[in-house]
Every structure is written in structure tokens, then in C-alpha cells.
């Protein structure tokens, strides 16, 4: 049974606030890392790394806003906050809207990765088979509970990080003049690249669901900021390596530049090192899928009243159906664009509106309290 104490669950259900670093960073690093260089150059070109920095800094502000709204939630999550602000019925409708966002988030990660597997390795395997394997693996992990998911996030951040040393190989062929001239673009171009880099940072919004599972959560904000800084620096490093290896025109015609880099790595005992990269990406997207499935399960439990296991299977089946219906690279690109737009609206539109609404309520409550004191 879940017992809330100061917006925090019981000791046996929570994890140390230190793990918020890996929970947030693990959900932010996903399939978008494979394609982002060829997308963000369409604005600021070789200086798009500046736009990554701008987006990363803005996410720190979003983190502050998320902690602000959760501080005023009765049970420390967006589910109870919606009911608090908008009533039980309409609040649950808004939460189910977030459930739809979660389904789209999971589907984007899995379908994009399945497309990579299909093109690079398993050309003869139908996408639904690979989707089923990924989902069943994720269901098994999520069934273990939030603490198991946290452990998966930890190791799925640590293990793939070991491959960062392989970026030494493309750096041997770097053309540093690709970055010149510096700061040669206008604000509109930097803004366009910043908007295109937003999918890299999606995942931070799931803090709105698992906040009660963090010990001393009201004091854990520093770990969230460390996670976002870690993510920002990682993307900037990847972007700089790729921009130094490819020129702008090459990137415009490259779908997965991050994977292309792995093809130049050669060892006498291992020819196709790019296979390591492709399979390694399963570890990278696994935290995003698990957190998404867990979040969807929690929403169904708290709004519709399902128990955990049926809610998990219902969420997984819906995701499977969505993915099976997505056929062709054009459809996948449309899903990516839709996910990016939904993330932009949610992070930079809806969350600031919640902050504004809570601030207005607090202002009027203080005003009415002051009027009572004066009248007495």
C-alpha cells in the first residue's frame, strides 16, 4: 500500500535522490541521438551546437517550473495536481491527455529504433517481431517496480558511456574549419536549430509522475539540474565531433550520422563495429521505454482504477498497435515531427501555464487571508 508522507512514498518504494540524475538523463538520451545532427543544421548549420546549449539552458528553467508545480501538489504528482486545480472529472481528462502523450513518446522511441534495426541488420525481419521483443523485455523490467527501473536506468547510462572513447577515431579525420566563421548566424537561425534540438531533451516531463518515488524529493532539484547539464554537454560533444567530420552538405543527405561514424572504426579482430553501436542503442532507449510504460501504467491506475498488471498490458498493447500501423519512413518522420511539436507545447506552453495558474491562486488566497486578518 502506498502511504504518502510529505509528498513522498514509503521507504520501501523510494530511491535515493542521487538516482534522479540517472532517471532524468536516461529518459532524455534516446533514439533522437542518431539523427539530430542532420536536423539541427537546417538552421544555424555548423554553429547548431550553440542552439543545443540554448535549449539545454531553457530546460533548466523547465526543471525549476516542474519542481514549483509539484511542490503545490497534494500528493507530489501531476495526477493529484490536475484534480486539485480542475476537479476530479476534468482533472482526470487532462491526465489522460498526458497518457496519450506518453503513448506517442514510447511509440516514437521503439518505431524509430526498429527502423534502424530493419535497415542495418535484420532486413528480412518484419518490424512487428522486433517491436514485440522490445516490448516484452520492457514489460518484464517494469513489472519489477520503480526501483528495478531505476537500476536499469543507472546501468543503461554507465555502460553505453564506455563507447564515448571510440569517438577518437573520427576525430583523427576532423576538419575544424567546418566551424568557421564563428557566430555568423542570426537569432532566427539559432532559434530554428534550438527548436529542432528539443526532441533530444524530451523525457524530463516524466518527473511529474515519479517525483513521489524520490527520497527527500523537495531537496533533490540539484540532481535534476546535474542530469540536464550532463545531457547538454553530451549532445554538444557529439554535435562537435560530427560537425568536425561531416560538412553541412554531407549532413543534409545523411539520415543517421552518428551510426555512420561507427563504420570508420576498424579492429583486426572485429570488422563490423557499427553492429556494436546499433545494439548498444537498445540500452540507450530502454530507460525511456520503461519509464514511459511505467508512467502510462501509473496514470491508468490513478485515473481509471485499473490494477498495475492489466494497466501495464493495456498500455503495451496500445503501443504495439500504434507501431504496427506505422509503415514507411515518411510516416515515422511525421510521428517524430508530431512528437516534437507535442513536447514543445507541453514543456514551453502547458507547464508555464500551470505555474501561472498556481501563482494566481496563491495570490488570491493570500489576499483573502490578509482581508480576514484585518477584519478581525
Word description of this protein:
With 376 residues, the protein is mostly helical. The chain has one domain: Amino acid/polyamine transporter I (Up-down Bundle). The protein is 70% helix and 0% strand. It is built from 16 helices and no strands. Helix 7 (146-161) packs antiparallel against helix 14 (274-303). The N and C termini lie far apart (44 Å). Residues 1-5 and 369-374 have low confidence and may be disordered. Belongs to the amino acid-polyamine-organocation (APC) superfamily. Spore germination protein (SGP) (TC 2.A.3.9) family. This is Spore gernimation protein GerB.
Attribute tags:
single chain, 0% strand, 16 helices, mainly alpha, disordered N terminus, Amino acid/polyamine transporter I, disordered C terminus
Structural class: mainly alpha
Overall pLDDT level: 87
What is the helical fraction, as a range of percent?
over 70%
Percentage of residues in DSSP E strands: under 5%
The number of distinct β-strands equals 0
CATH architecture term: Up-down Bundle
Number of domains: 1
* Rg from alpha-carbon coordinates: 22 Å
Shape: globular
Q: Please count the helical segments.
A: 16
Organism: Paenibacillus psychroresistens
Family: Belongs to the amino acid-polyamine-organocation (APC) superfamily. Spore germination protein (SGP) (TC 2.A.3.9) family.
Transmembrane segments: 18-36, 48-69, 89-107, 119-142, 148-169, 223-246, 275-294, 306-329, 341-364
Keywords: Germination, Membrane, Transmembrane, Transmembrane helix, Transport
Amino acid at each position: 500500500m502506498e502511504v504518502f508522507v510529505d509528498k513522498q512514498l514509503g521507504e520501501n518504494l523510494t530511491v535515493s535522490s542521487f538516482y534522479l540524475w540517472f532517471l532524468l538523463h536516461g529518459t532524455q538520451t534516446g533514439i533522437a541521438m542518431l539523427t539530430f545532427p542532420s536536423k539541427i543544421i537546417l538552421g544555424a548549420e555548423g554553429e547548431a551546437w550553440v542552439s543545443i546549449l540554448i535549449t539545454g539552458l531553457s530546460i533548466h528553467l523547465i526543471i525549476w517550473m516542474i519542481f514549483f508545480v509539484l511542490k503545490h501538489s497534494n500528493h507530489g504528482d501531476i495526477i493529484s495536481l490536475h484534480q486539485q486545480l480542475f476537479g476530479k472529472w476534468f482533472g482526470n481528462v487532462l491526465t489522460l491527455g498526458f497518457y496519450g502523450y506518453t503513448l506517442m513518446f514510447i511509440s516514437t522511441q521503439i518505431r524509430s529504433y526498429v527502423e534502424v534495426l530493419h535497415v542495418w541488420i535484420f532486413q528480412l525481419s518484419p518490424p512487428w517481431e522486433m517491436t514485440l521483443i522490445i516490448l516484452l523485455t520492457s514489460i518484464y523490467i517494469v513489472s519489477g517496480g520503480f526501483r528495478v527501473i531505476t537500476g536499469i536506468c543507472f546501468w543503461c547510462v554507465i555502460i553505453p558511456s564506455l563507447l564515448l572513447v571510440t569517438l577518437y577515431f573520427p576525430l583523427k579525420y576532423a576538419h575544424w574549419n567546418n566551424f568557421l566563421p564563428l557566430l555568423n548566424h542570426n537569432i532566427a537561425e539559432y532559434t530554428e536549430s534550438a527548436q529542432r534540438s528539443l526532441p533530444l531533451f524530451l523525457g524530463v516531463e516524466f518527473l511529474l509522475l515519479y517525483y513521489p518515488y524520490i527520497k527527500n524529493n523537495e531537496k533533490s532539484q540539484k540532481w535534476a539540474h546535474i542530469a540536464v547539464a550532463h545531457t547538454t554537454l553530451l549532445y554538444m560533444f557529439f554535435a562537435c565531433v560530427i560537425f568536425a567530420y561531416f560538412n553541412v552538405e554531407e549532413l543534409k543527405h545523411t539520415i543517421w550520422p552518428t551510426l555512420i561514424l561507427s563504420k570508420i572504426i576498424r579492429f583486426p579482430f572485429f570488422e563490423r563495429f557499427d553492429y556494436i553501436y546499433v545494439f548498444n542503442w537498445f540500452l540507450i532507449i530502454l530507460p525511456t521505454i520503461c519509464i514511459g510504460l511505467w508512467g502510462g501504467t501509473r496514470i491508468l491506475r490513478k485515473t481509471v482504477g485499473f490494477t498495475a498488471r492489466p494497466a501495464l498490458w493495456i498500455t503495451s498493447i496500445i503501443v504495439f498497435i500504434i507501431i504496427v500501423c506505422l509503415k514507411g519512413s515518411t510516416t515515422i518522420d511525421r510521428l517524430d515531427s508530431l512528437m516534437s511539436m507535442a513536447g514543445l507545447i507541453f514543456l514551453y506552453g502547458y507547464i508555464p501555464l500551470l505555474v501561472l495558474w498556481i501563482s494566481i491562486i496563491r495570490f488570491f488566497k493570500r489576499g483573502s487571508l490578509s482581508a480576514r486578518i484585518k477584519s478581525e
